[in-house]
Amino acid sequence: MALVDVSRLPQHVAIIMDGNGRWAQARGKPRTAGHERGADAVRATMRAARRLGIPALTLYAFSEQNWDRPQAEVNALVDLLCECLVSERNELVDNEIRLSAIGRLHKLPQHARSRLRTLTSETESYQGMTLNLALSYGGREELIDAARALATKARDGEVDPNEIDEAAVAALLPSMEVGPVDLLIRTGGEQRISNFLLWGSAYAELYFTDELWPDFSANSLYCAIEAYQGRQRRFGLVPDAQQRPASGESPSKLERAI
Ligand code: IPE
Ligand code: IPE
Ligand code: MG
Predict the structure, then answer these.
(1) Which of 27, 136, 163, 242 could cross-link to 103 by cystine, CB 3.0-4.6 Å?
(2) What is the total count of domains within the chain?
């Protein structure tokens, strides 16, 4: 059982939801069955994050590179996305969750884009939590798009190249609208970033678990947050005498998860 200090929550949790295919394979099922069960884990995780009071949750649902998977699997993933955008509507509305999406969304089929647009605009005023879906997303692609935008502004005389700083780049990255990542979770046993939030994860705490995504639960999220709260973040500085290590603190408010 995990212990979470609700007064020191990560403000932005990002998850690489990996292992759907292996989950299905282990049960002699088609990969798509793993993706379907993965959607249940998305719902459980979203609920748990909302209940804890995490302000932003970014989920890696489909990478730019995933377009090169077999067409049948790509189609199944897009269909599942469309179904979820309908089935989860009430969940978002009832819990005041704002939906947003990042990635090269124009590559999604028209019907998926239109459902996404409908739900993002319907939930845009909610402040309970932001659920940010990374769809057709790649961290390098996002940086390329920002570089193009900056180069265009420089060419048009709208920006002085010598004045381009961290804030100027971050302002052009849709993934940074919810701020830098505090806790980056990857399920499925691999320990890599796979082109996820390259800029925003610069100082993220990384948490890898062997659990396959369809098995991820509220308690799995609590365990990841507990591990995060045991880390000392330094951001390139030296430990401050005033800044006690997170693991040594006696939290003002502890919540026993589940
Ligand atoms: C993650 O699970 C889902 C997507 C990438 C869309 P995978 O489909 O990558 O599952 P594994 O890694 O092959 O088990
Ligand atoms: C990362 O998983 C992408 C998503 C979870 C959407 P992949 O399965 O595509 O990544 P690799 O191939 O293991 O690097
Ligand atoms: Mg995978």
Answers:
(1) 136
(2) 1
